[in-house]
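Journal club prep, notes for RB
We'll compare a predicted complex against what the paper describes. Inputs for the zinc ion case:
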Amino acid sequence: MTFNPPSDVMIYDTTLRDGEQTPGVTITTDEKIIVAEKLDKLGVDVIELGFPAASPGEQKTFKEAAKIGFDAQISGLARALTVDIDKAIDSDAEYIHTFIGTSPLHREYKLKMSKEEILNKAVSAVDYIKDHGLTAEFSCEDATRTELDYLLEVFGAVQEAKVDKINVPDTVGVTIPTKMNELISNIKEVIHVPISVHCHNDFGLAVANSLAAIEAGAKQAQCTINGLGERAGNASLEEIVMTLKKAYNINTNINTELLFNTSETVSRISGVKMPPNKAIVGENAFAHEAGIHVQGVLENSNTYEAFYPEEVGHKRRIVLGKLTGANAIKSKLDEYNINLDDKQFDQLFSKVKSLGDSGKTITDIDLRSIAEAIQGKPTTERIKLLGINVMTGDSTLPTATVKLDLDGKIKYKAETGVGPVDAALNAIQTLVNEIVHIELEEYHIEAITGGTNALGEVFVITVDEEGNKATGRATDEDIVKASIDAILSSTNKLLMLRD
Ligand code: KIV
Ligand code: ZN
């Protein structure tokens, strides 16, 4: 393996092009502009905003972006065809990323063209872009499955045509780090413009392959926020940037403190939620539950963290469960200014363990309400259910009317929903919104006895606008009533924070 990395790496973000190719994801012009503004603040060098030839909407996005004037260069993807390049030019793109398939599979089955025809198309596309005074980046699509001599011939020819950068895509995510490193070393022998790399994650190696390319001297990584992209996605920007920074000591222009916020925006807009264990930006990336780990982290977070969560704009979380140690609980009680004597603390500790053993989620607010109950503090229920009436059937829009006591005032609300439970929850949400905005994060229902009169147990997690979470659990023969009781129990816990 060659180890000759540059001291600085450019970040070419393709969230809004390859990321948008994630199955099921479409991003409107307004949303693309919101994401592009975030990427620009984040400090990416190039934003691939889309594929102008794909639709009038894409062209509109480029024109909007040109009016705003970003610091990052705005790139548009184009096949090596003048029709595509013209659309990008007419949309005011300043940078064009043009590509053509070069592997035997692409030549024979997709393009049905000879090696020579493909090479000529590549050169003509670059000539055409350069004749218009724009920046040209050229990709041999499926480069990692292209014969090396032919790949070098095509890259050499576009270099002659004064291309600004060449990009090496592992289009189907089939290579491995050693091979990628060798490929870039071979390309570097004949190519003197900056070399970029574009890796897909079909074997989960997109980031490793990108880093192997950088080790061999690649100067740019094409990547996406949250690793969005075709099939299993592209190399994740946040993972590449943080590994370069912390493990290689290689600079990028990225302001890493904005990574978490950018990831959240992309997740919201794309509708693709991150798994909790996603590196760098996942909910659990800086979460600790096991007693031994928490004790270490409370003394010095470096014991069990690769770097401080603040470096990526994230937060550390101490999670409560069966593995929780006494230190974690003590630190949370200190945070909430709750003083328990030794006996009360032991009671709380065994309650947390028994809830954890039975697989129950315990949020910070749950801990606080258990601790206050142990102290004998009266539980203040600011919201009480006074009555409920539901109407449902196959020819009726399910409707629920709910009567609540809200801080001593009687309130009614009727709402509709997809079913009676949804209608009742909507009515509660509307009423409760007057004092706290709650969202239902999780809802589970389970029959805990058999038969048509089975008891239904409902478990919910609600979250307020500050991200505080509380659980609620209730059991009843009537599942609508159990659902409402669970929601109200968790909402009352959230309201404790506002007493
Ligand atoms: O994966 C790929 O080959 C691409 C090209 C358009 C660069 O996305
Ligand atoms: Zn791709």
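Talking point for the session: The pocket of zinc ion (ligand 2) is lined by residues 18, 169, 171, 198, 200, 230 (CB under 6 Å).
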